[in-house]
Design brief:
Structural class: alpha+beta
Helix content: 55-70%
Strand content: 5-15%
Radius of gyration: 43 Å
Strand order of the largest sheet: 3-4-5-7-6
Order of helices and strands: HHEEHHHHHHHEHEEHEE
Length: 421
């Protein structure tokens, strides 16, 4: 059965690619059927009897013209139906017994029904059935109720029904194919969206890790170079902090880049993502770099959801890094983590006297505040980053502990003011 089905596939594809050849063959087959039917004489008791009559030249001409019109049935189905209908009506009116030209009308009516909508099909079909049936009943030597006249009504109605069924099946198949293609496009778009989100998340993590640790390394290296000759013990301590910061940077980079590994690659990272549980260690790195930091937390033992915990940690890390880079040598920072109802509020303040960030070059800003805004917006929260009255800078983030059902109405609420990195 498989071999037989495969054998029909190639001819079917070839015929679909050459529709005119198929229509010519169909027209020839219809002509042969009409000619054979014209030699048959209906016999009520014993069925049709062949060679009892022969068609006259005018009947043959009508059949040839009707069959020839079918070659153009795809280009002008309505015109072909009109031509074959007129030829069939002429056969009923001018020949006795009538030539079976109505067979070409059946094919033309099927073509119209399969290529138009249902209301048009039944309007045209009913008109064709009535005209041809009335013409067959009104003229001819047979009674109006003879089976030949009833056959005209039955065959034309069957052509309408069959053509409408074929059109419905084509529409159904096209709808299924379109739905499958749309699902495929949606799946591809979803995959690309997830890849873009993952790339953005990894880029934020890399920026946070590199900006934080490199800033600390830069500060400690500067301290070591400044006191190397006069206070070598303090220089050694600064270099130890440099070594610790660089080791932490390498570990976090290795864990972040490890997310890009394939599923079968060895040595996948198993360390958990940083969070507020290691906030004291993060703050100690800034204190060792010479930035006084005070921390205030409410309910520190109550864990936050993983995404919120990581976002809070990264916001504090980036905000303190900005304080160390931009606020000046004598700046102090305050960090507070407060849980209010269903939200966690993260605040980082400094009293720095560095250059006013509002006058920073437009093209000199980094991606720190942008990364914080993206993290907060992704969780459905809000972020405010702006200079404080009287000097310093304030970063305030509100993160929902329970994920919201939809994104915030004003994404711009997580916007920033100023030019810190």
């Amino acid at each position: 059965m498989t071999t037989l089905g495969t054998g029909f596939v190639r001819p079917r594809r070839w015929l679909r690619g050459h529709p005119l050849v198929f229509d010519r063959g169909l027209a020839a087959a219809v002509l042969v059927c009409m000619v054979c039917a014209s030699f048959a004489e209906p016999e009520p008791r014993h069925g049709p009897v062949f060679h009892a009559r022969s068609p006259d030249p005018f009947s043959v001409l009508l059949m040839v013209l009707a069959a020839g019109a079918l070659v153009l049935r795809r280009r002008g189905p309505m015109a072909v139906l009109a031509v074959t209908g007129l030829l069939s009506a002429a056969g009923f009116l001018l020949t006795d017994p009538p030539a079976p030209v109505v067979l070409s009308v059946v094919i033309a009516l099927f073509t119209v029904a399969s290529r138009t909508d249902r209301p048009t099909t039944w309007r045209v079909g009913l008109l064709t059935m009535l005209v041809l049936t009335m013409a067959a009943m009104a003229v001819g030597s047979t009674p109006w109720y003879s089976q030949e006249n009833v056959g005209v009504l039955a065959w034309t109605g069957l052509a309408c029904a069959a053509g409408d069924a074929v059109r419905s099946r084509r529409a159904f198949i096209d709808a299924i194919r379109e739905r499958a293609e749309r699902a495929e496009r949606t799946r591809d778009e979803e995959a690309r969206r997830r890849v873009a989100e993952e790339r953005l998340r990894i880029a934020r993590d890399l920026h946070d890790v590199v900006a934080h640790h490199i800033a600390l390394v830069n500060v400690q290296a500067g301290v070591a170079a400044h006191v190397m000759d006069k206070r070598p013990d303090q220089a050694k301590e600064a270099l130890a902090h440099v070594r610790e910061a660089s080791r932490s940077a390498l570990n976090e980079l290795r864990a972040t880049v490890g997310l890009l590994r394939q599923s079968g690659d060895p040595e996948a990272p198993t360390e958990p993502a940083p969070g507020l549980a290691v906030l004291d260690a993060l703050v100690d790195t800034f204190r060792n770099a010479g930035l006084p930091v005070e921390v205030a937390r409410t309910d520190p033992d109550s864990p936050l959801p993983a995404a919120v915990d990581l976002a809070a940690y990264r916001i504090i890390q980036e905000a303190l890094t900005n304080v160390r880079k931009h606020a000046g040598a004598d700046a102090k920072a305050e960090v507070s983590v407060v849980r209010v109802a269903g939200t966690a509020e993260i605040t980082v303040l400094d009293d720095g006297t560095g250059p006013d960030p509002r006058h920073a070059p437009a093209d000199g800003g980094g991606h720190g505040l942008l990364g914080m805004r993206e993290r907060v917006t992704a969780l459905g929260g809000t972020l405010t980053a702006e200079p404080r009255y009287g000097g310093g800078f304030r970063v305030h983030a509100i993160l929902p502990v329970v994920p919201r059902s939809r994104a915030p109405e004003r994404p711009g609420a997580a916007g920033t003011t100023g030019g810190r990195a």
